[in-house]
Amino acid sequence: MGSSTDPKLPVIDFSKPSLQPRAADSWSLTRDQVVNALETYGCFLATFHKVSSDLHDAIFLAAKQLLDLPFEAKMKNTYKTPSHGFVGQEPLVPLYQGLGIENATSLEGAQAFTNLMWPSGNDFFCDTTLSFARLMAELDQMVMEMVSESYGIKEYYKVLLGSTSYLLRLIKYTVPRMNETNLGIVPHTDKSFMSILHQHHVKGLEIKTKGGEWIPIEPSPLSFIVMAGDAFTAWTNGRIEAPCHRVIMSGNEERYSLGLFTFIRDVMVQIPNELADDKHPLQFRPFDHYKYIDFYYTDEGKRSKCPIRDYCGI
After folding, report:
1. Domains of the chain
2. Which of 18, 88, 109, 292 could cross-link to 103 by cystine, CB 3.0-4.6 Å?
3. Residue 296: pLDDT over 60
């Protein structure tokens, strides 16, 4: 599964104080690293010190509080969008359970979810998840600004930014019992625009390279996995491909992880004209991100080897 000769994901530092668009050298160097990593792997590891060690500890304590709630309480986490609410006790992935907070960067979204789970309130959970989601959104927007600047499509990104919705998922994988699969989550690409994943100390996440090798990702308190989703593949006209990834459980300890997933709401995602030319013919039609998610959960979408191409490919 892993050896010293395995490929490693690029690690990019987002903690430099000079990392602002006005600090030309530092910004442009990091921007080029980001685009190269995304074009090569579809993802990279970001170090981001704005998430303090205290917040790292607090967000995983909040995740444990939530995921230790009775099954009946967690079942109340429902949304119209498939897989955005509680997912658990699925025969295909019996070790997995996760809950989602829609509009996680807004106080209203954090409070609505908290009050649903804890009718008498839980200020610690609400404040912690809101703080964490907002910092992840800040990292996401920095990455997106770099990509759109590099490709000369900043105006297109401004439209999407105004329609971006953030979903924070808190996830737990239980230890496999005797004769139970050690597969935590099946190999898949994310249906999001972008995803940022953060692991606690138990490893398990593996990312597949374009050459077919699986790279195990070591957990670190300061490390965040920034990953393209299917919608991003289409928006970049195939220049950046969402990477396939999975979770394999080993050892005898439960595994917790977090994901901030971005989605584009209420506008059609238009593939920028600048990304289609003679060398790069247009590969995708404009699409509705949430209708794409609905398509993925149809029988046709589940059977598809590349759902985004089957949904809006040319």
Report:
1. 11-312 (2.60.120.330)
2. 109
3. yes
